[in-house]
């Protein structure tokens, strides 16, 4: 508590909330710095939440609220030490976190498959869209279907492709059915549950949901990995908090470095398109690289008008695929007298950036 008071003197916007049980013992402790709160104000539309880190003397799970900034770097919104991972504990944590963030609810929250979290999110964040992270789904499949997941069977490669590449509902449904039947896992309890809950994790069902490009809690996982470099095993509480602050300091240094590069390093152009010049004047260096990749790849596509000025079909050029019959077509519509372009691949809704199909049109 002395350490937290000292931190408060240095950061007047630091907020600490502690939930205690009937005997006065700490049940959950949440703290957010002034920088955490500022970052959440700008970038808190999408939050990944994870509780896998347990490197402290009391073996208490450490929960991290993580997001992504305009340089596409991981940013920390807050941290909490929890004594128990129950629905009541998560409910208190989510409600308290939002209260500390001036009642701004995230648009989307990505978590693991814990049932206790689901109930708490429905109660504390009723208007927030809740989805599972892909990282946990892929990790848990291996443990639940055993030898079928080994490299030689081909299941892993096909399953990963289904999870990462398929964006059409009909295509997902047919490929899932084909996959589970060919590898004899259609009756596997875990695979049945996964299919029943596909709207929580499968890409085709994410299309209208803004995730800032984060369809997994890998950002929480990578933040957990970085924490291990700062916090020794079995740390007492005050050491844990002090080292966590050093970790936050390292994140701020990384952000400052990228901010400096963004302000001082000249942009490299990949084309002569005016739209790239416009993007370079708006996007940060890191986001521009992602946009340039889409712009470059749109060169491999061809456009077929359906209704001139209103609707187009877009696909990879026949010369770019081995089997022309397997070409995927995207439907691109122009709305509001040319002010808005919408592609059924869903990238703009999902990431906030124009896709290669829309750019081609």
Automatic annotation (TrEMBL):
SWIM-type domain segment(s): 330-361
Domain of life: Eukaryota
Localisation: Nucleus
Function according to Swiss-Prot or TrEMBL: Putative transcription activator involved in regulating light control of development.
Molecular function via GO: zinc ion binding
Record keywords, A-Z: Metal-binding, Nucleus, Zinc, Zinc-finger
PROSITE patterns per UniProt: ZF_SWIM (PS50966)
One GO location term (cellular component): nucleus
Similarity comment text for this entry: Belongs to the FHY3/FAR1 family.
The species this protein was found in: Aegilops tauschii subsp. strangulata (Goatgrass)
InterPro entries, sorted: FHY3/FAR1, MULE_transposase_dom, Znf_SWIM
One Pfam family linked to the record: SWIM
Swiss-Prot/TrEMBL GO biological process terms: regulation of DNA-templated transcription
Protein name: Protein FAR1-RELATED SEQUENCE
């Amino acid at each position: 508590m002395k350490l937290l008071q000292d931190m408060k003197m240095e950061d007047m916007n630091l907020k600490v909330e502690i939930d205690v049980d009937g005997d006065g013992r700490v049940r959950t402790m949440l703290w957010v710095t002034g920088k955490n709160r500022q970052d959440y104000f700008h970038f808190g539309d999408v939050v990944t939440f994870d509780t896998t880190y347990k490197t402290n003397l009391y073996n208490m799970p450490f929960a991290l609220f993580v997001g992504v900034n305009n340089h596409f770097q991981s940013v920390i919104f807050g941290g909490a030490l929890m004594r128990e991972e129950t629905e009541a504990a998560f409910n208190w944590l989510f409600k308290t976190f939002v209260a500390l963030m001036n009642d701004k609810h995230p648009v989307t929250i990505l978590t693991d498959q814990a049932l206790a979290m689901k109930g708490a999110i429905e109660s504390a964040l009723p208007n927030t869209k809740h989805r599972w992270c892909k990282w946990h789904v892929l990790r848990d499949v291996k443990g639940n279907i055993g030898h079928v997941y080994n490299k030689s069977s081909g299941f892993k490669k096909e399953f990963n492709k289904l999870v990462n590449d398929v964006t059409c509902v009909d295509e997902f449904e047919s490929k899932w059915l084909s996959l589970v039947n060919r590898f004899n896992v259609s009756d596997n309890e875990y695979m049945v549950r996964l299919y029943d809950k596909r709207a929580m994790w499968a890409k085709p069902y994410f299309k209208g949901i803004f995730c800032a490009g984060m369809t997994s809690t890998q950002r929480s996982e990578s933040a957990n990995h970085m924490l291990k470099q700062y916090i020794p095993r079995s740390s007492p509480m005050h050491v844990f908090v002090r080292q966590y602050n050093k970790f936050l300091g390292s994140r701020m240094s990384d952000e400052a470095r990228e901010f400096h590069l963004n302000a001082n390093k000249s942009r490299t152009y990949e084309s002569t398109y005016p739209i790239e010049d416009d993007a370079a004047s708006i996007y940060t260096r890191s986001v521009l690289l992602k946009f340039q990749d889409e712009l470059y790849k749109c060169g491999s596509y061809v456009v077929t008008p359906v209704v001139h000025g209103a609707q187009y079909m877009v696909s990879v050029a026949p010369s770019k695929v081995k089997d022309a019959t397997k070409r995927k077509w995207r439907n691109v519509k122009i709305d509001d007298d040319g002010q808005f372009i919408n592609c059924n691949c869903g990238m703009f809704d999902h990431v906030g950036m124009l896709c290669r199909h829309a750019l081609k049109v």
